[in-house]
Specification:
The chain has 210 residues and is an alpha+beta fold. 45% of the residues lie in helices and 20% in strands. The chain has one domain. Strand 4 and strand 5 form a beta hairpin. Helix 1 crosses helix 7. The longest helix is centred in the last third of the chain and has 23 residues. The chain is globular, with a radius of gyration of 17 Å.
Length: 210
Amino acid sequence: MPLLRNIWLAIFLFGDIMAQSILGFNNLDEFFAFHAAPAIAGIKPANLFSCPAVLMPQAEEILEDYEKQFKDSHTRFKLLCRCRAHILILVYDTELTEKIFQKKVTQNYLARFGYAADTGVQDFLNQIAAKIAGGESFPHEIGIVLGYPPEDIEGFKRYKGRNFKCCGYWKVYGNAERAQKMFDAYTLCREKLMQALQNGVTLKVAAAAI
């Protein structure tokens, strides 16, 4: 696997892009673990992140390889968009995301954006990808598949990313105590996964052990 060092990553948080310098990735397993550990471990429906396209010109082939590695699990790797300068990657758990779309509250919420009641995960992701590729305003409803509560998605839109109660893996406008517990669990998951990789196991093996 190619080395990824001294890279600039852009992480999407409700349409905002937070750029930060990330140092010391030794391989792609560490790269994916750092940005998508909760989804890979099956404790979060999905993780969304991006990186400069020049750092991963063969993104399709890389994601296809990870799909093969995780074929007997619920983890999937999807290239959501190859934008001008960045690629947008979604790592998701098929079981958790399907459960979200079976909920009436999800169906009612997405209906406000024109989605049919029987919209499934794949159809939803395809529509989201088309909206992003079409240059429309960022489809904040993608927060649903990422496990964000509707009140936090709407709060972000209403207050334009300001006046939040707390901020971690997303900006919280609803139940801050519940969200903070989730944030702590996600961070602990990432730390465990990264430590396992540094001990020499593969991402697939590390994820199965958590």
